[in-house]
Each structure stands twice: as C-alpha cells, then as structure tokens.
Amino acid sequence: MARYVYAFTEGGREMADLLGGKGANLAEMVRMGLPVPPGFTVTTEACRAYLESGEPPQELGQQVAQHLRALERAVGRELGQVDDPLLLSVRSGARFSMPGMMDTILDIGLNDYSVLGLAKGPGRERFAWDSYRRLVQMFGSTVMGVDAGLFEQALAAIKKQHRAADDTELDTCDLIRLVETCKDIIAEATGEEFPQEPAEQLERAVLAVFESWNTERARLYRRREHIPDDLGTAVTIQTMVFGNSGSDSGSGVAFTRDPATGSRGVYGDYLPNAQGEDVVAGIRNAVPLQELERLDPRSFAELRDHMHRLEAHYRDLCDIEFTVERGRLWMLQTRVGKRTAQAAFSIAGQLAAEGLISQDQALARVDGNALAQLMFPRFDTSADNEVIAHGIAASPGAAVGAVVFDSAEAVRRAAAGESVVLVRQETTPDDLPGMVAARAVLTSRGGKTSHAAVVARGMGKVCVCGADDITVDPHERRFTTQGMTVPEGTVISVDGSSGVVYRGAATLIDSDIMRYFDTGGQPPVAQGGQIVADVHQMMQQADAVRRLEVRANADTPEDAARARRFGAQGIGLCRTEHMFLGDRRALVEAMILAHTDAERATALQALLPLQRQDFAGILQAMDGLPVTIRLLDPPLHEFLPDRTELAVRLAQDSALGRTPDPRDAELLAAVNRTHEENPMLGLRGVRLGLVVPGLVAMQVRAIAEAVAQRREAGGDPQAEIMVPLVDAVEELHLVRQEVDRVLAEVAQETGVRIDCPVGTMIELPRAALTAGKIAKDAQFFSFGTNDLTQTTWGFSRDDVEAAFFSAYLDKGIFQVSPFETIDREGVGRLVNIAVEEGRAARPGLKIGVCGEHGGDPVSVHFFHDAGLDYVSCSPFRIPVARLEAGRAALQEHTGSDST
Ligand code: ADP
Ligand code: MG
Ligand code: MG
Questions:
Q1: pLDDT per residue over 115-159, tens digit each?
Q2: By 3-state DSSP, what share of the chain in percent is helix, strand and coil, each rounded to 5?
Q3: Is residue 274 within 8 Å of 284, Cβ to Cβ?
Q4: Is 463 a catalytic residue?
Q5: Which residues are CB-neighbours of 243 under 8 A, at least 6 positions away?
Q6: What domains can you pick out in the chain, each with its CATH number?
C-alpha cells in the first residue's frame, strides 16, 4: 500500500523530496533530540496525486487518522476534547523553501466548545479567544476563500472603538465579539458556517495547503527562483505550542550567524507574548534576540546551545523559528539559511578553516552568481536616497552619472571626463559606443535578455532595464518618472543589483574582489581583508579541480590583457568585425563599392596592415596562449550607412536643387544591393568569404604575417583560425584551400614556420548534425551557442526578446531565456551529437564554446558534462566560469547536487 504519512520520528533531512524541507528538518531535529512539538507529515507525493486528479489519494484519510490517534495517545489529549484540547498547526513545506508563499493554518481543533476548555485555568481566557479568533480568520480566508481584508477591517474597527494601538490591548469580551463577527463574515460570504467539527477542519486545511501550491503568488515565486512547478508541497501537522500565553511566552527567529556578513554571533528577533506569524508579519515591533537573555535567561541559554548543535550538525548557517511557552522552549523550524554573496564566501571559508567541511565542500557552497555580485561596486544602502524608478536588475553593480539620451552625447561627455548614465527606451547595436562610454545603462523597455541587458552584462556594465515608470523623451532630452521631469545632465544613481534608481549621487563602495582579480589574483595583501582571502581560497580550489579550460572573448589587446589577469587561458573568440569600424569604415566601403577586382584588391590592401597590427597586438598580449581568430562574420550592410538616412539626404538634395554627392548615390545603390530581409540568415559568415574575392586571403595573410612578426620578435604566438557559420563541409573545404594556400605563401615569404590550426564554429543545426563530416576538415570546433540557439528555435534574439519573451516566461514555456542559459533539451542535444560524431571522426578533437553561455553558471555545468575542452566568455565573466567549472568537476565526482 502506498505510504503518504510519516511521523517526525520516522523521517530525516535526507527525505526532503518526500517530506518537504520543513518536514524533513523537523524530523531531523527530533532525531537530534531537540524539543520539537510532536507531529507527522503528509508527503509531496500525496499532493502531486491530488493536484493531478483533484482528489486526495484514497488511503490518505485513513493514514492521517491513524497518525492522529497515535499523536493523541502520545500527548494524552484529543482533538476537539472539551477539556484542554489538542490543537494542531497544518503547515505547508515544499522541497525548496518558499517563505510565506503557501499557507499555514494554526490552532486547528478549536470550536465553540473546545475554546472554553482551552480557556480553563488562571489567566487563559483571553489567550484562548485570541487563538480561536486567529483560527476563524485564517481558516476563513485560506480554506474558505473569504477576502482576508474583511477580517482585517473587523479587527481594525474594534481596535478603533477602544482606541487600541495593537491587538494585545483587546480584552476577552472584544475577542469573543470578534470571533462572532468573523463567523458572520464567513457565513455571509460563503453561505456556509465555519466548520465546528475538528476532523473536518483538519481535512479541509490539508487540502487547502495542497491547493495553495498553485496560487498566483506561489507560481510567480517559483518562476523567479527557477523552482519546478511539479514538485508539490508536503503538509506538516504538528501539535500547537503557544507563544501567546502571556509575558513568560513569545516567539522568535534566529540565525546561527549574521546572514549579511557571515560573522558569528546572536542574530534574530524576539516578540514576547506572540504567536509565530506575528514575528514574521511585523505586526508589532520585535526586540533583538539578545534581549531574550534578560527576559528569560534559561530559555536563551538553551536556545544558544541548540543553535550551536544545529550549526555543527548541518555544518552550515541555520535559520531557526522557535517559541517559548511559559518558560519552555520549543523548536518549530530550521533550515540552511539564505545569505548574501559575501556571507556565502565568508561562511564557507570559515567552516573550511574550522575543519567542519572540506575545501571541496566549501567550493560547492558558493557559486558564480554570488561571485559576480561581489565584483561590482555597490551603494551604501544605509544612507536614505530618493528612489525615482524601479526596473529589472539586469546587470549587477552600482553606478553614478549624469543622464544622457544618446550615444554621441555619452561619448562626448565621457571623453571630457564626466561619468554618464545612458538612458534609452531600448538600446540597439548603434548605441554600443555610448554604452561603452557610460557607467550604466537604463532603459524603460525590455527584459533581462534585452539588447541592453545582454551587452551590459558582457561588458560588466551596470544595467537596469524595463523601468516602466520612466518615459524617455530623447528629442526634448529628458525623461519623466512619477510626475517629475529629469533633464539631461541630472545626476542619478543606478543599482543594477536591485533594479532601483535614485536621484542624486548615492555613496559608492568599491569592490575589493574586482581589485583582487584586476591585479592578477595574487594572494591578498593587507587591503581587502577576509573576504578577499576567502574568495582567493575558493578560486584556487576551483582551479585545482576543474577540467574545463576557461578562455576569453576579446577583440583588443587591452581586453586580452585584462582577460589574462582574470585567469583566461587563451582567447576563444577574437571577432574581427570591430576592426572594420571607426575610421576604417571608409576602407570597407571602398571594398564593397569596388567595381573591379583591382579596385577591391586595392581596398583590401589598405586594410591589411591595420589588421596585421591588431592581430600582432592581441597575440603579444596573449603570448604563449591560444588565440582563436574568427574570420569576418556579419553581413556587409552593417558596415554601410543607414539606408533611410541616405535616401533622405539624397531626396533633400534633389528637392533643394543641390547636386547630390555622387558617393551618396553610389552608397545607396550598394545598400540597396546588399539589403536583406533576414540578415541573420543571409550573406554572412563563411558565405561572405566564398563570394567576396580576396577577403579571406587578406584576413589570413594579416594573421599569418602577425604570427611571423611576433615569432621574429621572440614571441610565442598561438593563432588559430576559425571559420564562422558553416553549414556544409564543402564550404569549409573550399575556404580551407584558400587559407592553407595563404599560410604556405606567407611561410615561404617570411621563412617562418606558421602552423595555425584551422577550425570551424558549429552554430547551425545542419553543422551539428553533420559534425562527423565537418570534423574531417576542421582541426577544432567551437560552438557558437548564440546563433545555434537562434537557428534551432527559429527566432532572432533581437526581435523576440522585446516582443514576446516576457509572455513566454510568464506562460512557463521556458523557465529562463534560452539565450541566458543553454536549452539542454534542444540546443544541448545538438551539442552532444556534434561532440560525439566530431570526436568519432577525429579522435581528440579540441572543442570549446564561445558566446554568452560560456559565462553562465548553469550552462558551464552542461558544457562540462558534454565533455568540452573549454568555455570562452567575456573577460569579466572569467572568474565566474573558473569557479563554476570547478564546481562542475566536483559534482561529477560526488554526484551531488550542490546548487
Ligand atoms: P512559513 O513557511 O510561512 O514560515 P510556517 O509553517 O513556518 O510557515 O508557520 C507560520 C508561523 O506559524 C511560523 O511563525 C511558525 O513558527 C508558526 N507555527 C507553525 N507551527 C506552529 C506550532 N505547532 N506551534 C506554534 N507556532 C507554530
Ligand atoms: Mg516558517
Ligand atoms: Mg555566430
């Protein structure tokens, strides 16, 4: 027979899947001999069965009744008995903590009779009626679906009559009246009486907890925290203890360490004469936990003792709920507590230093997201600053600057030494220079994966996006928010870790961790303190255990040098298109406009020395380490002026009777010629190399000559040539012939041996599916997961992110954008196929990944599992990738899920 109920004495923390975190940890505390009010837990399996069929499983009623009888025998009291009745709490608790998201109901078992029994004894009347009042209210709203506001109004009305500041000032008579009022409210709203039968109360409460799994707020919370929707909740049924029994009673929460910094000490809050939910709800002001020492030294000493034991037992920061009932301490909940990024590193470091956990376990306790947070400067939140907008926390960190509304102004002011914040409705690739120049980017539209967000994260730049309080007016050079107008030049502060925007300059605190990485990750000196030492220790551990190499995506010598300081083991993606912009654009235009091969050759000839210098600089910065250079990838029109702009200019000229600039006319013709409806799927990548004569040869010559130049200068250049957007091996084959020819030519001319491996990106489904063939002509693979994601899903990132991604996330079509975290099922499957077939055709084939996903913690684990050799990501994400690569290797060994 299926088993749906476990007594606390039958469980343990290893059973969290079945008993939920709360139920499993209560059982664990019982196992440790801590004082826990007895009870039992209904499994998540029962909840899943209920949610699927709409009916509780058949055996459930009987199993609950059995456990209830055993509980009644053990405590010597019965549910609903008239004298000193047994009362129960019915508590929700899923595998992952979802604080306050699902409903817990207290004081089950009270009715018009048993409340009198509970009231027997000196000074218990008020307490009994207060408890009944709470039950009717909670049951009415969560089980019977009555609007909770109606009860609140009734309570407020009675308090007002008595001019009572809080509910402790109400006396027994008030509470009796309030119970009656609440019962009337229920009858009126539902046409049904508050159920007097305790067994019915219990049964309905359990089902209500099941139901609460699917409330809107619970769903929202799960989506945000990436908790699966199909786990279900367990229900814990537990003997009530009463913190509201008088001044020698109370309820509190405690942490075994400071969850903000990780330091040891006594942290928490205590509320005398209160039931548990009062502390959390903040109804009255709680006192610091330390006060309990004065109020009730015995309970305090006992609590501290339990806290020490729990921390030693769980080997981690524990978060605790407790209640004191007339001088007797009860433990009501514990779990491994949530903490800030800093506390995560500091606690893991301390516990490892104390020998409570190993260095590997310490590494498993921290993660890349926490590390990324520590790398950004932050605002001093203790100061009170004026909040002017809220948006999505898209790229963490804190920045202060003057508001500007276009890229050119950002560049101009930044060049003059001013810090600026670029404010746009949304950004486009045209805003790139402005984004580079700005300290932060603020947009009024777009989500976590909008252009602004993705680019800002890649650059390690602060970004708040989708701040819809804001209306941007670039023409008037101002934005409005909450009825206030903010003109260009106004200083604002942007917090990319919380999504909050302040007026004026909030005080900034620099990141010691960023300084640590930027100075080469050397063992910490006096400055920076403990947190730097903890991070250093964790990085060393990660580097020692990881199998994945970490490279950088870098296009300039400066980026390459920084990447190296951050621990990059090479460059996995050096894009050449940036080298075609700026003043060189004219040369590119000339190449595109060329009428004859000779004209084109002249234009290419002019680009050659510039490219060579670029490559030489990067190879020097990465001396001794591999540098994967990608041949030109984007469609040509990206290098030409805007089509509409040109057309307008020409139309104006002709309207005003001016002679149009002949070059404009020629450019417009070229723009029209190269125009594509779907540039992403058009003439780009290897296709360009095959149809634009001389382009590949020029780029390869520049690379080869740079290699020769570096080698002659005594360097150790390790260039690798990468061909983008290959669909069919034939494309690669043709390009390789040209590459090999030029490499041989340059080797001959210079007399220097040039061995550049030639490989390809796998970024189209067809390439992944024919990887076995492609591997015959490719000396390495690098997955371009951005394009592979676009082409596998059949959507273009720039178009879909703003248009419908938020709807897709809301509807649960995906939990997280596939551009942020790799889609294992679809894109991941193609990766697996390509790895397997590629290596079957060419044993030992070197395989990496370049693109956003290489710096995403979850995706790094996937790439580790897929057997890749390296991930490549933006320089600022390198520490994150190193750390996660280490954690991925640990999980493989222990098989444990440390996230
Ligand atoms: P949440 O998951 O929202 O924290 P809980 O199940 O922990 O919900 O319960 C809500 C409040 O009720 C908590 O403060 C808890 O300590 C208190 N509580 C739960 N069960 C009991 C009990 N058996 N006796 C007294 N207080 C309880
Ligand atoms: Mg709780
Ligand atoms: Mg690509």
A1: 999 999 888 898 899 999 999 999 999 999 999 899 999 999 998
A2: 50, 15, 30
A3: yes
A4: no
A5: 249, 250, 251, 271, 273, 274, 275, 276, 323, 324, 325
A6: 48-239 (1.20.80.30), 250-339 (3.30.470.20), 376-509 (3.50.30.10), 546-635+676-894 (3.20.20.60)
Question: What tokens does 256 get?
Answer: 């075994």
C-alpha 333 – ligand 1 centre gap (Å): 8
Q: 868 near 849, Cβ under 8 Å?
A: yes
* Residue 236: both structure tokens together: 């814990």
Q: Which of 20, 92, 36, 30 is nearest to 237 (CA)?
A: 92
Residue 740: closest CA among 687, 772, 779, 693: 779
pLDDT band with cut points at 50, 70 and 90 for residue 448 = low
| Residues 782-806: tens digit of each pLDDT | 999 999 999 999 998 888 877 788 7
Angle formed by the axes of helices 695-712 and 597-621, to 10°?
40
Instruction: Report which of 690, 868, 875, 682 is spatially closest to residue 783, judged by C-alpha positions.
Output: 868
* Three-class secondary structure of residue 255 per DSSP: strand
Could you tell me the strand order of the sheet in which 264-272 lies?
287-288, 264-272, 250-257, 318-325, 328-336
Q: In the chain, what is the greatest distance between 2 CA atoms, to the nearest angstrom?
A: 107
Question: Which residues lie with the beta carbon below 6 Å from any ligand 1 atom?
Answer: 37, 89, 91, 99-100, 104, 106, 238-241, 275-277, 280, 321, 323, 332-333
- In 3D, which of 884, 814, 820 has the Cα closest to residue 851? 820
Residue with tokens 């909450």: 482
Q: Give CA 40 to chain center in angstroms.
A: 35
Give Cα 596 to chain centroid, integer Å: 53
In the chain, pLDDT over 70 holds for what percent of residues?
A: 97
Q: Which pLDDT band, with edges at 50, 70 and 90, does 878 fall under?
A: very high
Per-residue buried b or exposed e for 712-731, using 16+ beta carbons within 10 Å of the residue's own CB: eeebebbbbbbbbbbbebeb
Among 757, 761, 763, 820, smallest CA distance to 573 is for 761
Axis-axis angle for helices 643-655, 662-674 (nearest 10): 140
Q: How far is the CA of 724 from the centre of ligand 3 (A)?
A: 6
Q: Which member of 637, 850, 853, 861 is catalytic?
A: 850
Token pair in block for residue 198: 């305790």
Per DSSP, 2 falls in state -
Render pLDDT for 706-740 as a digit per residue (tens, 0 to 9): 999 999 999 999 999 999 999 999 999 999 999 99
Cβ 475 vs Cβ 365: under 8 Å: no
